[in-house]
Task: structure prediction
Amino acid sequence: MTPERYQRLRAVLDRRQPDLTVITDNVHKGRNLSAIVRTADAAGIAEMHAVIDDKDYRAFRGTAMGSHSWVAVRRHRDIAELIGDMQERGYQVLAAHLGEGSVDYRQPDYTRPTAVLLGAEKRGVSAEACALADAHITIPMMGMVQSYNVSVAAGIILSEAQYQRDRAGLYDQPRLDKQSYQRTLFEWAHPEIRDFCRAKGLDYPALREEDGEIDQPAQWYRRIREG
Result:
């Protein structure tokens, strides 16, 4: 790993937002999910949540491995349980849904812990999820079509979230807890050793602070062989 890459990884992690996320409610097209993951990465999101069936999730995993390297995608089966859990953790859940009471997407305060809830293009966010959300947000439309593609809508909304958080200084210093930061740094910097440790059920070895390389690698490999 070059010094430049190590510093790049650190710089990205320093801007990760542990309290900004996306929930997708049965967005089943792999290309749309992959685009949302890339947009989440660009906004500094560390993990997002997908409610999706088995078949569509397998197809998505087969086409989105590059995106998964940078944003953790947590799969869920029950949208109501997921929304309730996020709200218990202090998140406001904002559903992208045009209806009575919907507000302009720029109106909410995205510096609060926020989960942006998105639905599939034709069906949108489910009625159950809409009823549970804290607010409904909408993107003003000036043409004949009724809605943006879901991945485009994600980009527009997350751009506003990023703008508000940037103005508030939330990207100016690391916000991930130390354990999550170090774990993610290792997984990004050493994916092959990450996979080896996962397969063997091993703890990750320590990294040197100055260059991100394994601290005393010969000793670690010897312990692995002897263990």
